[in-house]
Every structure is written in C-alpha cells, then in structure tokens.
Amino acid sequence: MPSGPTFPEWWNWELSFTGHAELRMEQRGVTEVDVRAMLEQATRYEPSVVEGRFMIHVAHRQRPWIVIVEPDVDAKLLVVVTPYEVSE
C-alpha cells in the first residue's frame, strides 16, 4: 500500500471488515471505499492496547483518523476492527 513507512507482511493481505467496523463506519459517515483510501495513505502504525491489534495512522478529509486492524494469520486477512477520527 503506502510507499513511505515499512509495514509488516500482513499489510498487503486482503482486507476484511467486522460487523462492528461496518456499524461504526456508518455512524461515523465513512464507507469501505473511504477506509481503503485512508489505508492507502497511511503514515505509520503502532501496537494497540489490545494485544494482536494495531493502530494505523491515517487522514480523512484533512483530519487525523486511526484505523484499528487485527491481522488474522491463519486466514491471511487484515481485519478492520474500527476506524475513528482523532480529536486534537
């Protein structure tokens, strides 16, 4: 995806969206296409507070957002758990 930072192997896996993510996306006014576009422009990632999950730092409409993802090693899927706008 992004060419700047180095991301782990799971970064290039196919995306999957949880029901929770889809609900939150609807509530927050973003679509799957929006989230995919955000991830294409990701600037960095870091471990989340939940073990096995990662916070992907992105932007949407010139505002900072975070997309929480969880790599599913067995299925080789990158599962989108939730996206949210970061309040500054």
Question: Would you write up a description of this structure?
Answer:
Helices cover 22% and strands 39% of the residues. It has two helices and five strands. With 88 residues, it is of the alpha+beta class. The protein has one domain.
Structural class: alpha+beta
Task: Tell me the fraction of residues in β-strands, as a range.
Answer: 35-45%
Number of domains: 1
Mean pLDDT: 93
What is the topology?
Elements: E1 14-17, H1 19-28, H2 32-40, E2 44-47, E3 54-60, E4 63-72, E5 77-85
Parallel strand pairs: 1-5
Antiparallel strand pairs: 2-3, 3-4, 4-5
Features:
alpha+beta; 5-stranded mixed beta sheet; 88 residues
Question: What does this entry show, briefly?
Answer:
With about 90 residues, the chain is an alpha+beta fold. It contains 2 helices and 5 strands.
